[in-house]
Amino acid sequence: MAAISVFSHFLFMPFVLILLFLSSINGLNHLVPETTDPLNVSHFFNLHPNATSSHGEGHGFSLFSTAVTWPSFLINDLVKNQANVNLSASKAAATARVTFRYSGPALMVEAMVGTPPQKQRMVLDTGSELSWLHCSNTPAFDPTHSSSYKPVPCKSPVCTKKTADFPLPTTCDAKRLCHFTCAYTDGTDVEGNLASDVVVLLPSNTRATALRIPGVVLGCASSALAGTPGLMGLNRGALSFVAQLQTLNIPPKFSYCIADRFHSPESPGLLYFGNSPFAKYLHYTQLFTIALPLPYFNRAAYSVRLQSIKVGNKHLPIPKSVFLPDHTGAGQTMIDSGTQFTFLVGEAYDQLKREFARQNRGLLMNPMRENFVFQGAMDLCYQRPARSPFSQLLSTVTLMFDSAEITLQGHQLLYQVPRRYAGNGVAKGQAIYCFTFGNSDLVPVEANIIGNHHQQNLWVEYDLQNSRIGFARARCRIN
Asked: What's the N-to-C CA distance of the chain in angstroms?
């Protein structure tokens, strides 16, 4: 894993749209500043040790960003027109709207869990199914203080049938309760018991009513990831948080807008459950799935079909077969809010890396030594003056889908490595900047993963009902 929205009336002023469009085309003037600890790729991809991939180092693709080729809109203006929206479950709400914020590289939402309610922080993670909370560390959720907490018996249909998409099968513990284990590719894992309890989503403004969701199935973790207080699983599995909202007549879809971390680090993002008020601005691409269980293919992930990648105006000569999963399922492309950066397999990464370096060689002239690899997979790094300005300088990178294309530019392409990870060879006043794509073969994981860094200033809608994902360029700052 490692992890929004507005309402009716839209005010579009032509000069505002022109300014937004020009800012997208002309690039941004700065690179990403130093931030907190990086979040590694850590989703579990159910890799069978005896499975082999015919791709080897080849499949591929690239990224997401702010320079979509469609009209953009101002989230802040739209939010101001929603103050009187009532989102209570008693009125069979069609939507629920909450905010989230950055916590290090993760996207964190707050929810109230149990009776009486206990405030919990959870990572928004579209790459995981099970939502879980710490039940042993401090601070943690204490199930003994919740009268609505109900453990799930191991012979319950919830335990035996609805967990079919879990990467590891559930088991029975000594008390005959349903025990889960979620393993991640960075070697960490989470385990504990399944249970159900009341979850309350806090509204994004004081005039809206909180959404109370009874009987949400989640994990009560006895061991969990250090530094992660909890997780809200939002993939396509039967026990994902979004799937469980259907009991409240909320359609199986959700959408969000992630604020620009460089320009608006304190601005909350916006998360919508249910129908998006921005549907008419979205361009959709169909989700890709394989019905047959395959060892390397995650059927519950949000997988998309890519056609090509472009650096500047140059299309990379990547064979289309590289973008398709092979006979083992290796090579799918997933959108994952719980991973920070984007990781590409073999051939696609190598071609993107070479072409980006070639087109920007006049600007990025001091590459790091070959053995410098950030996060174990990001090996195109440069030393430059710290916080040096950039404007219209870096070549753009465009990800091309069946029916949409999204361009990444400016500060989303280079990340300033926190100094504690830079080593001793960095001169005073200098900093290391790394290309925000990594080689997933080094993680290792047989997939392409598009992380939250490349989803900033995009409205992204996950429409499970119609098996599609929609995108629109947006300025996500709402405060």
From this structure: 28
- From the list 48, 52, 47, the residue with the least C-alpha distance to 327 is 52
Q: Is the pLDDT of residue 255 over 90?
A: yes
- Residue 95: which of 214, 254, 268 has the closest Cα? 254
Those residues whose C-beta lies under 8 Å from the C-beta of residue 264, and which sit 6 or more positions away, are 476, 477
Q: Go through the chain and tell me how many residues it has.
A: 479
Residue recorded with tokens 């601070």: 139
Strands 405-408 and 397-401, sheet pairing:
antiparallel
Within 395-457, where are the H helices? none
Beta strands 447-450 and 332-335, pairing class: parallel
**If pLDDT is split at 50, 70 and 90, which confidence band does 226 have?**
low
Burial of 430 (0-12, 13-18, 19+ CB in 10 A): middle
Dihedral sign of CA atoms 67, 69, 74, 78 in order: negative
0.90 cut: is pTM over it? no
Cα–Cα dist 421/207, whole Å: 44
Q: Which of 459, 479, 403, 462 is nearest to 73 (CA)?
A: 459
Whole-angstrom Cα distance, residue 415 to residue 460?
A: 22
Least-confidence region, from 130-139, 165-174, 459-468: 130-139
Q: Could you give the CA distance from residue 290 to residue 279 in angstroms, rounded to a whole number? A: 27
3-state secondary structure of 220: strand
Q: How far apart are CA 296 and CA 332, in angstroms?
A: 9
**300 contacts: CB under 8 Å, gap ≥ 6:** 129, 165, 235, 236, 237, 240
**130 and 244 Cβ atoms separated by less than 8 Å:** no
Active site residues: 125, 336
Give per-residue pLDDT as tens, 22-51. Answer: 223 233 233 333 333 333 444 433 333 333
- Contacts of residue 242, defined as CB under 8 A and 6 or more positions apart, other chains included, come to 234, 252, 253, 254, 273, 462, 464
Structure tokens at 421: 């990870």
Q: Which two tokens stand for residue 186?
A: 């960075």
Tell me the CA distances in angstroms from 437 to 20, 56, 90, 356, 400, one per residue in order. 26, 19, 45, 11, 16
Question: What are the distances in angstroms from CA 357 to CA 63, 363, 405?
Answer: 16, 9, 22
Dist. CA 342–CA 326, nearest whole Å: 21
Question: Cα separation of 122 and 216, whole Å?
Answer: 14
User: Identity (one letter) of the amino acid at 288?
Assistant: F
